């Protein structure tokens, strides 16, 4: 078994990024589990694992990871947007996802965030 070291964790993190890009989210999660086990405070690894869970349609673990990221970084627009998408995909009430979409758009007014927030739609 290879020795666990900070250098190995960086290699595993980068490999997980490549696996996720290559559409192997479950492989990415496996690598990130070890990284997060050694560095539970690593928000970047948790965000990447949340993305991998989402890509693998593991919505509850994705929701938990995105929420944890937001506890640590409440101004992370991407995490708000991704949590909104996760809640939407899980068929949760629209207001749950919309809250996160609106926060994402307020923090970083990217067109995708604004559209998801529904600022261009009327609430009749």
Automatic annotation (TrEMBL):
Organism domain of life: Bacteria
UniProt-listed InterPro entries: TPR-like_helical_dom_sf
Pfam families reported in the protein's UniProt record: TPR_19 (PF14559)
UniProt name for this protein: Uncharacterized protein
Organism field: Streptomyces tsukubensis
